[in-house]
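User: Teach me something about this protein's shape.
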Amino acid sequence: MRLLFRGTVALGCYTGLATTIVPPVLNGLRASHPELTVDISVGADDDLLPALDAGRLDVASLYGRFSPADLRREVAHETEVMALLPADHPLADE
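Assistant: First, the predicted structure itself:
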């Protein structure tokens, strides 16, 4: 027997995630859980953490280094941070 989720989940996330990762995840959720609604709030940590603390968000996706220690954390996605610069820049060969 498959568990189906229903109701509304309030998700907070930053812009980069909202425009890249969230759309395909939501498509999968809609297919698997048609009675689940996800309300998305996009913002910076300064916006999302107070909303989470106040109960306006059920879950927030943030960079872990900014999250308070009293919140439960789960790694959802690992990423790399890269510096991009023109090939002819003096630091390009460093």
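Now, about its shape. The longest strand covers residues 7-13. The two ends are 55 Å apart (CA to CA). If you'd like, I can walk through any region in more detail.
User: That's plenty for now, thanks!
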